[in-house]
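Project channel, design review

CF: Before we commit to the Phaeospirillum tilakii constructs, I'd like one complete example in the thread so the newer folks can see what an input/output pair looks like. Taking Tetraacyldisaccharide 4'-kinase.
RD: sounds good, go ahead.
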Amino acid sequence: MRAPEFWRHNGATARALAPLAALWRWGAARRLEQAESYRPAVPVICVGNVVAGGAGKTPVAIALARRLATAGRTPHLLTRGHGGTEIGPRRVDPVRHDAARVGDEALLLAEAAPTWVARDRREGAVAAVATGADLLIMDDGFQSGALTLDLALLVADGGYGFGNGRAIPAGPCREAPATALARADALVIVGPDRAGLGALAARHGLPVLGARLVPAPGAPDLAGRRLVAFAGIGLPEKFFATLTGLGAELVLTRAFPDHHPFRRAEIEDLLAEAEARGAVAITTAKDRVRLPADLRDRVAMLPVELAWDDPAALSPLLDRIGVRP
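CF: and here is what came back for Tetraacyldisaccharide 4'-kinase:
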């Protein structure tokens, strides 16, 4: 789905949907209360969020996995494989698997560390530990209660924050932000904090880890380039703003719902628009894996990675659970 604009504001529509949001919050709280949490034999780090998509969980999970692998740990990543058909537990093989089977995020995660798709997170954890994981990083799952968490990092976009703060469908939140912050160990703010998240975290006694998305090594030089940009991610406008910030000229932008399964006709139309305007079609790494395979080489990609504002700030949190980076 695409996040509706009214999720940003406490307007009439949000207020009208408040009774349904109360039911959502009740259901979310009840699921956590009734969950039978499993404790794996290794530490579990959860990278979760409050809102439905667009926070930046996957880049944070990838950055953590790479940092810990560089330090000599053997992290495995767990994901439910949103958008894919695989039930699992299945270790992701980027050569044999595609986004239709394991989901787009799983393919990105697998570039950083061994990754498991498992709708049942307990089964995924057991499989990962049995094949050598000495640490589990769970991308999403903060609201599931399936695994006992040793470290819970909540991720939020600094511009969007928690939207209007209301639960689905009145707002973007999976649960009340205050409830989520009370169970978290730290708040990761991706991008400039324009939503007052730092002050909110301080009121809950939570440390704040600042971070930003930057072009990854090998990213194309886009200064002065004419682009037709499209994205099917939680907050497509973030991608478009990044391109503009790199000096590109956006002659056309197209936003699709998160995890959108691109049809051939849609991509061919965008390629035709780019050719007619003397531009290049470009998308995100997450979107590119969902394109028809024979059209991917005709679409440019901007790979990004997470950069911590203060990399050392993460160390005390990892030390707390006996994981020394």
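RD: helpful, thanks. The radius of gyration is 20 Å.
CF: Residues 45 and 151 are 5 Å apart (CA to CA).
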